[in-house]
Design goal:
heterodimer, A: 308 residues, alpha+beta, Alpha-Beta Plaits, 2 domains, 11 helices, 4 strands, 74% helix, 7% strand, elongated, B: 211 residues, alpha/beta, Rossmann fold, six-stranded mixed β-sheet, two-stranded antiparallel ribbon, 8 strands, globular
Chain lengths: 308, 211
C-alpha cells in the first residue's frame, strides 16, 4: 500500500512535470539562475580568500641581528620563536644570504655597490623573517622579541632592530582591511543567495498557484493531503535536479574561458582547475541546494491550498 | 447568512432533490455536507460521524464514501478521462488491477468508452459531466452529492445525466440533487426539499417543483 502510493506519487510528479512543460521550463530557468548565483558566490569567496591569504603571507616581521651575533644564538632565537603558538613560519637568512639579497636589490645602483666593495667586509647581520598565523598576532610576537631574555645573551643585545615597530601602523590597518573585506564579502554573498532563493521559492509558488483549483478538487474526491502534495514535491525535486545539472554544465565552459584571467586576478586561483578539482563538492552543493529548495518550496506552497 | 436553521434527515437509498432560486442556499448546503465549508453553528452527521468534528487531514476517508458532482465539472485539466477516474480510485488506495478493470466498465456505464484518452478540454459539456459522474460513482460511494449537475447542459444532456443518477439510485446509492430545473424535478416524482433564503420552506415526499 505504502509502496503503491509512493510509486503513484513519483509517476504523478513526472506527469505534472511533463504536462505543464511551460511552467516547468520557467521554474527551471529561475532555479538555474538561483543555483548559478550560489555557485558564483562560492567561486568569488574562494578567489577572495586566496587573495586575502596571499596578502596575509606578504606581511611579516623581520628581525635584524647584529653582525656580531653568532649563528648558534640566532638558531636558539629561531627555536624559541617556533615554539610560540601564534608563529606560522620562521625563515633564516644568513649574513651572506642577506648580502646577496642586498646586492640583488641594488643591482643597478653602482655607487651603493661600490661603497659596499670599499667596505671590504660584510656589514649586514643575519635576518629572521617571521610569519604569524594571523596578522593580529604580530603584536604579541614583537613584544615577545623585545622582552624575552633569550635575546640578551650575556652582555650585549643580539638584535639590531625589529621592523615591526616601523611597520606597525601599516600592518594594523591591513589586518583590519582584510577582516572587513572577508566579512563584507560573506555578508554580501549571503544576501545574494537569500534573495535568489526567495525568487526561486516564489516562482514555484506561482507554478502551484496555477494548480490551486486542482488541489481542492483532489481533496474533494477523497485524496489525502500526502497524496495531493506528493506529486508537487516530486515536480519540485525534478526542477531542482535539472536546474542543478544545467548549472554544473554551464559552469564548465564559463570557468574554462575565464580561468586564466581569474588566475592573474585572484593571486593564482584558476577557476577552471578549482572547479574540476572540487567537482564533487560543487555537485553536492548545487544539485543538493536545487533539490532542497525545490522540494521545500513545493511543500510549503501546496500547504496553503490543502485547507479544503 | 447563506443558511439559517436548516435541519433534515436523509435515509439510505433515498433520492432527494433540493430546489430553490439561485442564492437560496442549495450550494452552501451541499458544500457543508462535503465539508468544503463549515457551519458557524450546528452539525452535519454522516451516519454517526459529525464530519465537522474531524481533522481536515482525516476528511478524505469520509469523502471517499461520498461522490460529488459539480455544476462546473471540476475535472483535473491535466489528466485524461481514464486518469481522472483512476485518480479517485488511487486516492482511496485501490490496486492497479482494480483500476484497470473498473475504469473501462464505469465509462461504459456513462457511455464514454470511446473518449477514454481524451482530455477534459477535448470533451463537450455533457461528456465532461458524465466523466465527473463516472469519477463520483467509481468507488461505489454510499452517497452521491450533485450540485446543479445539469446547470451548464442542454435539455438532451440534462435528461441523460438525470437518467444516470436515477440508475445509480436504483442500484442502492443515496442521491442528493440540488437543482433549479423544474422539468427535472417534475419527472422524477421523488422527495423534494424546497429552500428559500437559507431556510427549508417545504419538504414533500413525492414533490413537484413549486415556488
Amino acid at each position: 500500500m505504502l509502496w503503491l502510493s509512493f510509486k503513484r506519487i513519483i509517476r504523478g510528479g513526472f506527469i505534472n512535470f511533463t504536462r505543464n512543460a511551460f511552467v516547468s521550463l520557467s521554474a527551471i530557468l529561475i532555479m538555474t539562475i538561483t543555483l548559478f548565483t550560489i555557485g558564483s558566490v562560492v567561486f568569488i569567496m574562494a578567489g577572495l580568500n586566496t587573495s586575502l591569504a596571499e596578502i596575509r603571507n606578504k606581511v611579516d616581521i623581520s628581525v635584524y641581528f647584529m653582525p656580531a651575533a653568532s649563528e648558534d644564538d640566532i638558531m636558539s632565537v629561531k627555536k624559541s620563536l617556533e615554539a610560540l603558538p601564534s608563529v606560522g613560519e620562521v625563515v633564516y637568512l644568513s649574513k651572506d644570504e642577506a648580502l646577496e639579497a642586498f646586492k640583488a636589490r641594488h643591482e643597478g645602483d653602482e655607487s651603493t655597490l661600490q661603497a659596499l666593495d670599499e667596505l671590504g667586509e660584510n656589514p649586514l647581520g643575519a635576518v629572521l623573517n617571521i610569519q604569524a598565523k594571523d596578522p593580529s598576532h604580530y603584536e604579541t610576537i614583537a613584544t615577545f622579541l623585545k622582552e624575552d631574555s633569550v635575546l640578551s645573551n650575556e652582555s650585549s643585545s643580539l638584535i639590531d632592530r625589529i621592523n615591526y615597530f616601523d611597520n606597525k601602523i601599516a600592518i594594523d590597518r591591513l589586518s583590519k582591511i582584510i577582516d572587513a573585506a572577508a566579512r563584507l564579502g560573506f555578508g554580501f554573498s549571503m544576501l545574494l543567495v537569500i534573495v535568489s532563493v526567495i525568487i526561486a521559492f516564489n516562482t514555484i509558488r506561482l507554478a502551484i498557484f496555477i494548480s490551486r483549483e486542482e488541489i481542492s478538487v483532489m481533496r474533494l474526491v477523497g485524496a489525502s493531503n500526502k497524496y495531493v502534495r506528493g506529486p508537487f514535491v516530486i515536480s519540485g525535486v525534478i526542477y531542482g535536479l535539472l536546474s542543478g545539472l544545467i548549472t554544473l554544465a554551464v559552469f564548465y565552459p564559463i570557468t574554462r574561458v575565464i580561468g586564466l584571467s581569474t588566475a592573474s586576478f585572484f593571486s593564482g586561483l584558476n577557476f577552471f582547475t578549482y572547479y574540476t578539482s572540487h567537482f564533487g563538492e560543487f555537485f553536492l552543493l548545487i544539485v543538493g541546494s536545487g533539490i532542497v529548495v525545490g522540494a521545500i518550496s513545493s511543500y510549503l506552497a501546496v500547504r496553503r491550498y490543502l485547507k479544503v | 447568512m447563506a443558511l439559517n436553521n436548516v435541519s433534515f434527515q436523509i435515509s439510505p437509498g433515498e433520492f432527494v432533490s433540493i430546489v430553490g432560486h439561485s442564492g437560496a442556499g442549495k450550494t452552501t448546503l451541499i458544500k457543508m455536507i462535503l465539508a468544503e465549508e463549515r457551519p458557524t453553528e450546528g452539525q452535519v452527521f454522516f451516519q454517526s460521524v459529525d464530519i465537522h468534528s474531524l481533522r481536515p487531514s482525516a476528511m478524505n476517508h469520509i469523502r471517499q464514501r461520498i461522490g460529488a458532482v459539480f455544476q462546473d465539472f471540476r475535472l483535473l485539466p491535466d489528466k485524461n478521462t481514464y486518469e481522472n477516474i483512476a485518480f479517485a480510485m488511487e486516492a482511496s488506495g485501490r490496486t492497479d488491477e482494480e483500476i484497470y478493470a473498473d475504469v473501462p466498465h464505469i465509462l461504459d456505464l456513462v457511455g464514454l468508452s470511446h473518449k477514454i484518452q481524451s482530455f477534459p478540454k477535448e470533451l463537450s459539456g455533457g461528456e465532461r459531466q458524465r466523466v465527473a459522474i463516472a469519477r463520483a460513482i467509481v468507488n461505489q460511494p454510499d452517497v452521491i452529492l450533485a450540485d446543479e449537475p445539469t446547470g451548464n447542459l442542454d435539455p438532451l444532456n440534462t435528461n441523460e445525466i438525470v437518467q444516470i443518477l436515477k440508475k445509480i439510485n436504483d442500484l442502492g446509492t443515496t442521491v442528493l440533487l440540488a437543482t433549479h430545473n423544474k422539468g427535472v424535478i417534475d419527472n422524477l416524482g421523488k422527495r423534494v426539499i424546497t429552500m428559500e433564503e437559507g431556510r427549508i420552506v417545504r419538504d414533500d415526499p413525492t414533490g413537484r417543483y413549486v415556488l
